[in-house]
Fold:
Amino acid sequence: MAKLQEKVAVVTGGTTGIGFATAKRFVAEGAYVFITGRRQKELDEAVKAIGGNVAGVRGDVSKLPDLDRLYETVKAKGKIDVLVANAGVGEFAPLATLTEEHFDKLFDLNVKGTLFTVQKALPLMNDGGSIILIGSVASVKGTASFGTYGATKAAVRNLVRTWTVELKDRRIRSNGRCTTTGSHCEDPSHHTDGTHGRTGRSRQGSGIPRLRRFQLCDGHRAVRRWRPRSSLISGRRGADPPASRFARGPVRRSDW
Ligand SMILES: NC(=O)c1ccc[n+]([C@@H]2O[C@H](COP(=O)([O-])OP(=O)(O)OC[C@H]3O[C@@H](n4cnc5c(N)ncnc54)[C@H](OP(=O)(O)O)[C@@H]3O)[C@@H](O)[C@H]2O)c1
Structure:
């Protein structure tokens, strides 16, 4: 039986990149998936590409009325089993010249958007459900001009740990996912705002662009992380602070 049979999942930022790959994989594993994004055309294309058992809800996760609208739509389908708060953006800006606009953009989306995406989902989440946040090794690594982004992901890292403890009575697991590669495709259909500048490289001899490789990889890992028998279940070992290996935040080799 497919791992996510009859489960309902929400993946924010599900039109491109990691979110799209995750949504596609979840559907392949039997879930009904809601994806979000701000651009209707990309949303329609993603829904079409995934094929079935998927619905697109347009909205900006940093705007609370849009989140309310998202969950009103989800409610019609039922409860949420898996929530992937994936929508996020990276942007380089040196400390000496970065602007308030840059700061607000990154914190509004990566921190405020992530927090309220989860808060507003809670009434709809099944006990024993799973929350997956997309973190980054930038949360612990110092990279020139990447401080604001790193700080947003450090905040996400703490939210994962905090919610693991806070939601354990409902057996809702909270896990953070750090991607395994920092290669970014220049294809505008893969990346929003042109913020990821580097070209994906092929792994030697494989013929598979690295971007595709990690997208598939992320989808697989997100599915694995959902499994109820997972050792990542919060409070499984009765620990407080959390026992989850991922709540402690594994650092994988990645650029950001
Ligand atoms: N790519 C990497 O190597 C990498 C590494 C570490 C961590 N991450 C994290 O992984 C997550 C996904 O990254 P990605 O590279 O896959 O991103 P991406 O390809 O640029 O896709 C971003 C997705 O989020 C949506 N989005 C952007 N702003 C939004 C908003 N305000 N409200 C709702 N949806 C919004 C986009 O659609 P619209 O533009 O239509 O809204 C799109 O669906 C992010 O949290 C990122 O920080 C990525």
Summary: Residues 180-220, 227-256 have pLDDT under 50 and may be disordered. The helical segments are 17-28, 40-50, 64-75, 100-121, 147-166, 210-226.
